[in-house]
Design a protein that fits this description.
Length: about 300
């Protein structure tokens, strides 16, 4: 029987999260954790199979409602009945930890549905169908996650302007650690908004600093000055602390990374739980830092080089 399988990958925000919501730039890099979705024919109601939920599309739990809406919109768009399909998701991206699992699942589903029905899919269509699911899950998202997950290269992103690719001169050795606490991006974004409304001058100053750091990181990447990239990542973390989106455990993992010799470290994504990243000088040091973070209580950790695939 006919099958269509498509993949998508995860992402990490290197710099500029939260500020990006206010029109500032952000830098994101692909993170080689993958999700694949497979479509095949079945009879009757659409069946959705995944680690977190298996059952009819119509009974999807709230956290997956955005995805079921997205699937229905695509089938309507393609003039296909909302039935007679089985959609199977296999994902290595932890859910709700700021690694963009929801956008990645949606991307793989949109790709596999279009390919199953033999339809051409433009990047623009892909983006707008995934945005349907993302807006449902996160409120008004900047679109950064989706753009980062559609790219094989590091990107420079500005809301409503779009992306440019950053061809960094040297590979980066990146450690990612999961606090094990779920990240509530929506709450984190709302908290920043409240602070902004209470004290616009102060928050604007922090956002401007994050913007300058992000610009400097791009320059350092283009020059291949990885040491400087590292120091700037830590500055970015400190500004995220000032804006109220870090927590004790994220700060602890940042400290431990620096003690273990990291070039720099910061939380990544929405904060208030979720994940942090550290930059290492080579793959051996990345492994050491990753192990140290696990010893310090991280729930799981990965390390990879931006020119190779993932090591766990
Ligand atoms: C979340 O991955 C990134 C934030 O900047 C929110 C957004 O861009 O929509 C915190």
């Amino acid at each position: 029987a006919k099958l269509s399988t498509s993949n998508a990958h995860s992402k990490i925000i290197l710099a500029g999260e939260h500020a990006v919501v206010y029109g500032k730039p952000a830098i994101a890099i692909p993170f080689p954790l993958k999700v694949s979705s497979t479509i095949e024919r079945s009879r009757g109601n659409i069946i959705f199979e995944s680690d977190i939920y298996t059952g009819f599309l119509d009974d999807m739990p709230l956290q997956l409602k955005g995805i079921s809406n997205c699937i229905k919109q695509i089938l309507n768009y393609l003039n296909k009945p909302i039935s007679d399909l089985r959609i199977r998701i296999i994902s290595s991206i932890p859910i709700g930890r700021g690694l963009g699992s929801s956008a990645a699942i949606s991307i793989s589903i949109v790709r596999s549905l279009f390919s199953f029905f033999g339809q051409k899919l433009t990047q623009k269509q892909l983006f707008s169908f995934v945005q349907v699911a993302e807006n449902y899950a996160h409120g008004n998202s900047s679109g950064l996650d989706i753009m980062a997950e559609l790219s094989e290269y590091p990107i420079w992103f500005e809301k409503r302007i779009g992306i440019t690719y950053i061809k960094n001169q040297k590979p980066l050795y990146v450690v990612v650690a999961d606090t094990g606490n779920s990240a509530n991006t929506r709450v984190a974004v709302e908290n920043v908004r409240k602070r902004y409304n209470d004290n616009p001058e102060k928050v604007q100053r922090i956002l401007n600093k994050i913007e300058q750091i992000t610009i400097d990181i791009k320059k350092a990447l283009l020059k291949g000055n990885t040491d400087l990239v590292g120091r700037l990542l830590t500055y970015n973390h400190n500004e995220l602390v000032n804006i109220g989106v870090s927590d004790k455990f994220l700060n602890k993992l940042v400290e431990k990374s620096l003690k273990a010799g990291a070039l720099g470290a910061k939380l990544t994504g929405g904060g208030l739980g979720g994940c942090m990243i550290a930059l290492a000088k080579d793959i051996e040091q990345a492994k050491i830092i990753s192990n140290r973070l696990i010893k310090s209580g991280a729930y799981q950790s990965w390390y990879f080089s931006t020119n190779e695939d993932i090591v766990m």
